[in-house]
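Lab notebook page, bench 4
Experiment: in silico fold of construct C2
Operator: M.H.
Input chain length: 171 residues
Purpose: comparison with the prior construct
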Amino acid sequence: MTSILHPSRTRTQQLIGLAGWTALCFATAAAGAVASANAKSFYSGLVQPAWAPPGWLFGPVWTTLFTMMAVAAWLVWRAPAQPAARRAALGLFVVQLAANALWSWLFFAWQKGGWAFAEVLVFWVLIAFTCAAFWRIRPLAGALLLPYLVWVAFASYLNWVLWQANPAILG
């Protein structure tokens, strides 16, 4: 059986790595939060479909997803084999994190519903590719990204519906 720990990293280095991936993920969350500073009043002021989640739900969902993303990235980072595949997968992970933060700016700060919708589609594809790349290296890491992929698919549809229902605001 192969060790799940990278052979050249000590336990302390492993924990520092986990802290680093967690910090990166929550720095992305913070960048999105800055863009979403007025999200509560903005979101509640939009014409919404009956199935739209309440505003209070987004914080706990995103906190859970960012935690799962950090663990997934850490699992790939510490995988003992495939250094080139690891680097590529983690590079893709960082790119999708940037797309994650950008969406909040497009939708909430700049109120560009169409641009946000176009971006979230690219963002979703980046997550799907990241999930597949992680899965090939460490299936558990890929599985940890599946709820994120589903949530962003839902958010994409919600983005579309809100944009269509609120052209004067999100035009």
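Observations: The domain at 11-30+54-170 is CATH 1.20.1260 (Ferritin). The chain has one domain: 11-30+54-170.
Next step: discuss at group meeting.
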